[in-house]
Design brief:
With 588 residues, the protein is α/β, with parallel strands linked by helices. It has helices spanning 45-53, 56-61, 63-68, 79-87, 95-105, 120-132, 151-164, 181-190, 199-207, 224-229, 233-242, 258-267, 298-308, 321-333, 347-358, 392-399, 420-430, 457-474, 479-489, 515-528, 532-543, 547-550; strands at 26-28, 110-114, 144-147, 172-175, 194-197, 218-221, 248-253, 272-276, 286-292, 314-317, 338-341, 364-367, 382-385, 409-415. Helix 5 (95-105) runs parallel beside helix 6 and helix 6 crosses helix 7. The longest helix has 18 residues, at 457-474.
């Protein structure tokens, strides 16, 4: 938990201009901010070396910026931290790093807004290492708390602390789901300086008494807009209420929607704002493309594009977890080296899949939006959107996985004819139209009419029509036919079960109004075929009054007479009920 293997890193240099003087807000408004070389570890040294070869133009276009831009040595970092930075080959910070590091060291709250791939992680890791290395932590009382929306991002932040703090005697711990809580409690019991956690597991452990936050003087809320999307804001508010009021809060987000602004106003105290590039802008190093194909043809088109394009490694994003599994089976069946990543997978499987993808054992990673934020895959050549995201901002975060550190990237999106409203939302957010180039063997289709809106509307129509057909089949006029026999049978008398000569009564005997004359005729017929039991029953029936005199079952019952013969059973009156009744009370 506390020990993590670092990712091999290679030298990278930034050619961005220096940010303006620290003010409120500090704004570095540069459309080329996405071209900066982020201070983030790269997974493959050979890929980093190759990228240095294909970037001579970038070095030639900004020679002045390289001479006049700030250096890490000018930001007030101590010698041990500078030694780690120099060993990694870094010299110039990115705009978000150059703006945030001095503000954090000065003790200000910071609101940082920068798109993915600009080095936000190092912008708070480096100054926090500088602040924390002067003292030690107590048991179960971390001095710094960093909140991340996903386990993958938490692991990546821990790797940054490992890399940049390797010459410092500081400890950090991961508090994430999918791991043994017992082991996490043991690590916290020994004392950690930095606690990197996801909100759910943090609250769970706190409520179990395994954690105290009274000494956490530094709070980092990373990827705040993703926290909002994932519904973690109530947990964040609860966690903030557990921290001391005199704390330093660092708030980072890729976008600044009105909801995020409200959260920042609630959590921060007179913050210094650092904004890099236009919100939700796409990196200029990414070549975008859009292909409109029928929904059922998406998998075939994706396989063709994967074979046609010079794909070194690629991430394929799906909107639904079940689509991730289905697409993975399709790619594996057709010979592609692919893996899956989504929230339902065990944590050990997710970590192993990421490591295999970083190591080059897997060429394609099919995933949901859980991997759209912050996961730094060095040298990622392509991003494919198997589905256009429902949230337009997720499009920027998805394709931001490629085109990093000045490298050229490619982002190809597949859309069904019913996804035009999603494409329009993306183009409205980014401020430009996504090109629709032609690819060999791929026949694009036209957008569906505007009235046929909705995601995958054609399939919804099919399901709806199928339900209508089943409903029409169910609504056939069968109910009256079933009810008719019941209504006809309602006024009938119960079928009589008597001696063998009564087993087939005629229908005309069913009505109560035909009791008198027909019963007399029936008794006369029975008398012609004398039997011992007939004589006994005949005598009994002769003792009972006719039905028309007794009245129907719905008429009011007469006054009770203990000597009167029992009624209500018709001709099926049991023999024991015909016995004389014993007198009551003193009459006995």
């Amino acid at each position: 938990m506390g020990s993590l293997d670092p990712i091999a890193a290679t030298p990278r240099r930034s050619h961005d201009q220096a940010p303006p003087a620290a003010e409120t807000p500090v704004t570095v408004d540069t459309t080329g901010g996405s071209q900066t070389r982020s201070l983030e570890p790269v997974a493959d040294a050979s890929q980093a070396a190759a990228s240095a070869v294909v970037q001579p133009a970038a070095a030639e276009t900004a020679p002045v910026a390289e001479r006049t831009g700030p250096l890490f040595s000018e930001l007030g970092l101590s010698a041990p931290i500078m030694q780690a930075i120099q060993e990694l080959g870094y010299h110039h910070p990115t705009p978000i790093q150059a703006g945030a590091i001095p503000m954090v060291l000065a003790g200000h709250d910071v609101l940082g807004v920068a798109q993915t791939g600009t080095g936000k992680t190092a912008s708070f890791v480096l100054p926090l290492l500088e602040i924390l290395h002067g003292s030690r932590a107590r048991a179960r009382m971390p001095r710094c708390l960093i909140l991340e929306p996903t386990r993958e991002l938490a692991l990546q932040v821990a790797e940054n602390f490992k890399l940049y703090g390797k010459h410092l005697r500081l400890t950090h711990a991961l508090l994430i789901g999918g791991e043994s809580m017992k082991d996490q409690r043991e690590i916290l019991g020994r004392g950690v300086d930095v606690l990197i956690a996801t909100p759910g597991r943090l609250i769970d452990l706190f409520e179990r008494g395994g954690l105290l936050l009274t000494q956490a003087r530094h709070l980092v809320i990373d990827e705040a807009d993703r926290m909002l999307d994932m519904g973690f804001i109530p947990d964040i508010e609860k966690i903030v209420g557990l921290l001391p009021p005199n704390r330093q809060t660092l708030f980072f987000s890729a976008t600044m929607a009105p909801e995020i602004r409200k959260l920042a106003d609630a959590f921060l105290n007179a913050p210094k704002e650092i904004t890099v590039a236009r919100q939700s802008s796409v990196a200029t190093t990414i070549d975008e493309a859009l292909v409109v194909v029928p929904e059922d043809d998406k998998r075939r088109v994706l396989r063709r594009l994967l074979r046609q394009q010079d794909v070194q490694n690629a991430i394929v994003f799906c909107n639904r977890k079940r689509d991730v599994d289905t697409l993975l089976k399709s790619l594996t069946k057709h010979g592609f080296s692919a893996g899956a990543l989504h929230g339902d997978l065990p944590q050990s499987v997710r970590f192993a899949t990421l490591e295999r993808f970083r190591a080059g054992e897997l060429a394609i990673l099919v995933c949901s939006d859980v991997a759209a934020r912050g996961i730094d895959i060095g040298g990622l050549s392509h991003v494919f959107n198997f589905d256009l995201p429902f949230n337009a901002e997720d499009y920027v975060h998805r394709i931001g996985r490629t085109g990093r550190a000045g490298r050229q990237g490619h982002a190809i999106s597949l859309a069904s004819p019913y996804d035009k409203h999603l494409a329009d939302a993306i183009e409205s957010l980014t401020g430009k139209t996504i090109p629709q180039p032609a690819y060999p063997g791929v026949t694009p289709t036209e957008w569906a009419p505007e009235d046929a809106s909705g995601d995958r509307g054609r399939h919804r129509d099919k399901k709806r029509h199928g339900k209508d057909r089943r409903k029409d089949h169910t609504d056939q006029p069968k109910t009256p036919e079933r009810e008719q026999p019941i209504q006809d049978a309602a006024p009938q008398e119960p079928v009589r079960r008597d001696t063998p000569q009564h087993h087939a009564p005629r229908p005309e005997k069913a009505g109560a109004e035909k009791a008198g004359a027909e019963k007399t005729r029936t008794e006369r017929t029975r008398a012609d075929a004398p039997r011992q039991d007939d004589a006994r029953h005949g005598d009994t029936r002769r003792q009972r009054p006719p039905r028309d005199e007794r009245g129907g079952s719905v008429r009011p019952a007469p006054a009770f007479d203990p000597q009167s013969p029992p009624t209500g059973f018709g001709h099926d009156t049991p023999a024991f009920m015909l016995l004389p009744r014993r007198a009551r009370g003193g009459d006995a």
